[in-house]
Amino acid sequence: MRLILLGAPGAGKGTQAANISEKLGIPVISTGNIIRREIDKGSALGEAAKRIINEGNLLPDSLVNDMVRARLNEQDCANGFILDGFPRKISQAKFLEEENISIDKVISIEVSDEDILDRMTGRRVCRSCGKSYHIEYNAPKAENICDDCGCELSIRPDDKIETVKNRLEVYHNETEPLKDYYVKKGILSIVFGCEKVEDTVKAVNKVLEA
Ligand SMILES: [Zn+2]
Question: How far is CA 99 from CA 32, 65, 162, 208, in A?
């Protein structure tokens, strides 16, 4: 099965992708993860990407398309894959078509902007060990201090409220038109992101079995 997951940043695509991956035995192709690896390596690609992402903007097609094509050509994608974070705009969906990469299903996970802002701006991460917290839903025992290593917690640049707002705006303007695009192809399913992750997983499973 070849799948695309759509959804605003913070809608929980990553969690759903991991569940589907386990259920169907196909890999998650997350452009975010590929890029983060490049950033960690400090490559030129990573440095260029970091600047653009930290402003909440989308990476140019020239940078992302080649990366995705190369990844989808790898052996583990032979029986299918889950695309998470690609395509993010119509031009990228057209790129998949031009490359004759057919898609079976597109699942859009819908969460209100309000809930997303609430979720994302509360995230904190340990500067030292990388453990993540949420000031409301998964708070550390001592305010702003990591339970595991006692170091100070910080806000990732892309979780800052201005950045999240910008990312949501970009999502609505650039990515959301993809829903219409895939409705016309008859392969879009909408799943409403529930408060409990398990409920969203159930709804996604129903779409997969349909
Ligand atoms: Zn820590």
Answer: 21, 10, 36, 24
